[in-house]
């Protein structure tokens, strides 16, 4: 007793405060559940130490650092034993996340839920997650508060994730350049246009699509490619662990606009897309028929008679993918026209689709050059034909995405159970190697919402159907922790 009092007295003289605090961090592998999530006791204890460390407590700072390492190792060990090996969540950051301690608290919560990766939105809704002073792009910065001009939220998030053993990937919109870009007078020629002369902004304003914030560009336009690559290079300077390209498609129309059934519905009327389509002609006859088909939307018999008379030395109209079959000029135009018109329709659709594929490949190239993994995010049903000659308006033919990158199908179908979700994934698995398919599920741990089964139910069904998949992601973190997302968004933290 006396010795204890003397020890306390000496420590008191040295200015060391003796307080009673829990000693977290002794969780064992068996204390994690089957989804590699920490117990609530351990979560609360870590948060307590984090707050003490944030207040400058030297002992708590050291203890907190040890705790982060311990939990990172526990998570790595658990993931080696549990399915899937990698589990990611999608997240949007806010300017308020730059307040002291917020990113630490956020990344802790992500680890606590058993995630090994986090996909951070780096370019979305016409704004980019770059500091204002280093933003030489066509878009405004997400963080625009005075005094924060040099704050680098993306770099800070990557560092905070790495400190906890998390991989942090940059999740980026692709062909959807956002409302702010669509308002620029010097970029109007860059926007995608349909056969009615509408940009996607005008199209949305009349109800053609349900989100006027989504402004899509002509993927053949050099200015669009240049603007995007300049922005991408700045994001890559932050050294993310990967880049995920989203919105690799055209707008999703509403009602009858959800189907493209005639050439005027296609977003190929921007000057760059039109010029590129004309270049697919292999002779003068072919070029002139493409022009007439674009301008009018269909051919008439006189178009064929006219090109035969104008270019008598050419056997028949030719364009890419069309095989020459010999002279048909002696066949009446009324007989030839329907087949030629159908071929031109298919050529136009293929041209629209190729623009999407080419833009993805253009964006992926600088990422690959830095040996950073590339992924593509898509809807499994967005490449489907509709009826006999129509197509889903998004024209997202993911089946033609390069197999050298990872595929992230958004298995978001709703049918009241897990069957349609599994079907979405199986559709993609038939096109690509299982190790390269990384499904994205939408839902919440522990409960069904909006007719979606819980994440536990979805994960169990997916594991049964495709046990060799080793990476799954969950959209979105804000769904898992809505209250914390709200206080982060509006700076409501104490």
Radius of gyration equals 28 Å
Distance between the termini: 42 Å
Q: What's the main sheet like?
A: 8 strands, parallel, barrel
Summed up, the helix count is 16
Biggest sheet strand line-up: 1-2-4-5-7-10-11-12
Low-pLDDT windows of residues: 1-22
Kindly state the number of beta strands: 12
Report the β-strand fraction as a percent range.
5-15%
Order of helices and strands: HHHEHEEHEHHHEEHHHHEEEEHEHEHH
Basic shape: elongated
**What share of the residues lie within helices?**
40-55%
Question: If you average the pLDDT, what whole number results?
Answer: 93
Structural class: alpha/beta
In short, what is this structure?
This protein is an alpha/beta fold and 494 residues long. 40% of the residues lie in helices and 11% in strands.
Note the main attributes of this structure.
single chain, 494 residues, alpha/beta, eight-stranded parallel barrel, three-stranded antiparallel beta sheet, 16 helices, 40% helix, elongated, disordered N terminus
Strand and helix map with partners:
Elements: H1 2-13, H2 40-54, H3 58-81, E1 86-91, H4 102-112, E2 117-124, E3 127-128, H5 153-163, E4 167-173, H6 179-182, H7 200-205, H8 222-236, E5 243-246, E6 259-260, H9 271-278, H10 284-296, H11 301-310, H12 333-369, E7 374-378, E8 385-386, E9 390-392, E10 406-411, H13 419-429, E11 440-442, H14 455-465, E12 471-475, H15 477-480, H16 482-489
Parallel strand pairs: 1-2, 1-12, 2-4, 4-5, 5-7, 7-10, 10-11, 11-12
Antiparallel strand pairs: 2-3, 6-9, 8-9
Helix pairs in contact: 2-3, 2-4, 8-12, 10-11, 11-12, 13-14
